[in-house]
Amino acid sequence: MSTTASPPAPGETQATAADALTLSGVDISYRVRRADQRIVRDVSFRVARGESFGLVGESGCGKSTIALAVVRYLARNGRVSAGRIEIDGRDVLSLDRADLRRLRARTVSMVYQEPGRALNPSILVGRQVAEVYEIAGAPRSEALDRAREILARVRISDPDGVMRRYPHQLSGGMLQRVVIAMALAAEPSLLILDEPTTALDATVEADVLDLILGLRAEFGTSLLFISHNLAVIAKMCDRVGVLYAGELVEEGPASAVFGDPRHPYTVGLLRSIPRRDGGARAPLQTIPGSLPTPGSVAAGCVFAARCGLAQERCRAETPAVHRIEDGCGERGSRCHFSEQAQSLPIHSIVAPDSARIADRAEPLIRARSVSKTFQASGQRVRGLHQVDLEIAAGETVGLVGESGSGKTTLARVLMGLTAPDPGAEVTLDGRPLAPLAGARTAADQKALQIVFQNPDSALNRRHSVRRLISRSLAKLGGYRGEALQARLQALAESVRLPERYLPMRPSQLSGGLKQRVAIARAFAGDPQIVVCDEPTSALDVSVQAAILNLLTDLQHRERVAYLFISHDLGVVRYLADRIVVLYLGRVMEIGPAQSVLDGPHHPYTEALLSAVPTLDDSDRERIRLEGEIPSAADPPAGCPFHTRCPRRIGEICDTTEPEMRVQAPGHEIRCHIPVDDLRRLQSAGGGAPSASAGR
Amino acid sequence: MAGFVLKRLGLGLITLWLLSLLVFFAGQVLPGDPARAILGPLAAPSAVAALARQLGTNQPVIDQYGTWVGHLLTGNLGTSYQYQAPIAPLLGKALGNSLELALVAFVMVVPIGILGGVIAALNVGRRVDRVISVFGLSATVIPEVVSGIVLILVFGLWLNVLPIQAAWPPGAGLGTQIYHLIMPAIPLALILFGYIQQMARAGTVEALASDYARTATLKGLPRGVMIRRHILRNSLLPTITVIATQTGYLIGGLVLVETLFHYQGIGTLIYNAATSKDFPMLEAGVLVIGAAYMVATLAADMLYTLLNPRLRLRGVE
């Protein structure tokens, strides 16, 4: 990543010496039930001109609160209770209304997570962008012209078309470009990005991140980049600050903080990410315990309760920032024992057990020619097209693809939540399964269970955890009375749900605990296969690690098979025995995980892998995909991927749909390019042919 | 859009047909012979029988229904027993009067209700909000009769500034008509104020908390412009639906107010028809109110769709 800060824009004479943003000793409190709760404590950092500063931390750590305090948009009960915030050397907190408005109009802009909600649904996109110029005093027609220009600068190929649309008519990636254009329109000196790509697909995320990097160089804007994703921060930022429970626990150059962390929390966080070189299902490391509630740590280090290195002193004495000066650059850590941070004891609950128990002799579930056609506003939409899939007992099959590729539809068909088109055949243990769950036998219903992405909406809020799990045990497992109680205890223990949580309702639990309840329910009837539909994508990395360990552990003990749907290839790489790649409802590639990931693989798989930022690799040449996933209502003729394929070989791709071709035993690819050519192309280091170079 | 309107119209017609069945057969079940009711208890049985033949009430019920619907479809609403005159002109005039009263109530309540809701939302949780919201909720639950009588006592009899009769002198100009309608309109406006205010408040609170409101504020828009341009249009969409559906209430729910203020509207007409067993009038009146309800709801949905680009442009992309 680039470490050279862009020079300040020429012509800017006043206050060039000042940093783009300085926070010194900032406390932020919320007034809750007549008492002040300090959410952010004594946070200081600076973002130099042209610099990109990353704030990283898990949910609830105060990242967004800090961003909102910088633009003075805290909720009415929140306030900066101590410290100073300066933008371009001006004290933000003391500005009057008019000056604050001018500051927002000219000096600082913000982009946040859901681009679809950041734009007004009932105003044309063009008007919303032009508004920024009107605020600056431009007449309406000139403002529209300039809006067109700025949209072109965020690489929107048809600015006029986009301007005439309403937000709901644009895709997420396009919307985020519009929002970024709007943020840059006033040429602010500071741009705050709060999880700008978290809601986007990996391929689109990669595009947007590249765009931001490019624009940053072009505009010389300073960035405050907020994300829970360490890899994204590593890719985007010169320096980073790690937030934990409202405190900045470590701060320094990105390469130093991620390469040579000096705070036990940073060390733990980095260890909990599935790594490319992590080896086959070596258990992920987790951080024990959970985030303290705001204001509950009165004395000592905020991380002490969860820290394997904590000593008496850590609980008694609040650590000051220790400055560390070495070859990696100057950095600070709020730890009494920062030089020992990396000796943090390994914490992982699951004993490593590398024995693979997948038994491929006969498939547990077998789906043949599964197609699913939807009717949407008079059009026929092919959600799935002739999908074949087998899952063996005890096996984990990873299902990947962009949104709209049909992953969830396939899961719903297997679960019997949606009936496939006639002609499909789904069998369990050789017996045909009824298309809809209601018509399946109780045994078949028990055998197939699902864990959803969002445990909030999957659990009835009005029932206690005990009741939620008991119901499943009674309905699926047929347990009654004392047997039920005994099984409940055992199940809660096996999903590591401490007994004190059983009387609580879902709203009193954290996201990770709720997901444990959902998993316990899925396992209540001793299932043979559990569909996991993005079970960890709503969770923080350290919580995700614990859930992934739990799933692995349960698989070892219960010999259950998983169909694991995820957009996160890192997670799929870690868990899956085999991987299925879907694109527009078609299987593009299927094979053993290692073989699919190592290649030669389908150009689409190649692009997906290339899109994911990781901490391991530095400057990889990324393979870009042209445009966005086409509509399933009107899929391209020939190979469905040809419109975006960086390795398209010619006419044949546009006209003939390729057959599945065996690349290696059990590994098939739907591509016209011969395997040897793929191998040669892909070993060349990702340099895509010239056809795709420009965009 | 056209498909949507046609579908809704079709459903509306089915609803009206069901309503006509209900109204007609309910009239049959009610005790009392129309011919006897018209001629009085002292009339000779032969005269009653002759009138029944003339009215067609001696025919089988199904035939009567068929004849009635056939007439309806040709625009003939039948003849009132009570007035011995064609129903259509009577009903038309009463409907006109009622619409005028409803309109005055609307003109009064819509701006005030929306303003109250928006002001409450901008001050959410503060005293202003509490005062407006508590007033709105209280006003909604006070029956029209109660507020009407209080109004008559205060403004009509004690202060003597407003006429206590809604009916204006013959040949009165529009100004005088409105002057007479102010007091009857207030109880209706009070009832509607709570609904409109609460909807406008909820919509505005939601819009103010939205990400797009944040975007607009952080662009550096002045607060007033932000609210006018970015908040109101989104926040008042649900309110429009409420307002339009309440048109139905206004036309159908006027009985009490019209009776109280001696106003010759459709409410009074139906009330009188019911007390004097004037079935053709009653049936036609109920159907007209049903139709008014249907049109109001349809108009509400169309307006909502027109103003909401997400619905208007569905399926374009």
Question: Could you walk me through the main structural features you see in this protein, from its secondary elements to its overall organization?
Answer:
The longest helix of chain A is centred in the first third of the chain and has 18 residues, at 202-219. Chain A is built from 24 helices and 24 strands. Chain A is globular, with a radius of gyration of 26 Å. Chain A has an eight-stranded mixed sheet with strand order 6-7-8-3-9-10-12-11, sandwiched between helices. In chain A, strands 18-19-20-15-21-22-24-23 form an eight-stranded mixed sheet, sandwiched between helices. Chain A has 695 residues and is of the alpha/beta class. Chain B has helices spanning 2-29, 34-39, 45-55, 61-73, 87-122, 127-141, 144-158, 174-208, 211-218, 223-235, 237-252, 255-260, 266-275, 279-307, 309-312. The A-B interface holds A 71, 73, 101-106, 108-110, 112, 114, 117-123, 131-132, 135, 165-166, 168-170, 179, 182, 186, 376-378 and B 210-212, 214-222, 229-230, 233-234, 237, 307-310, 313-317.
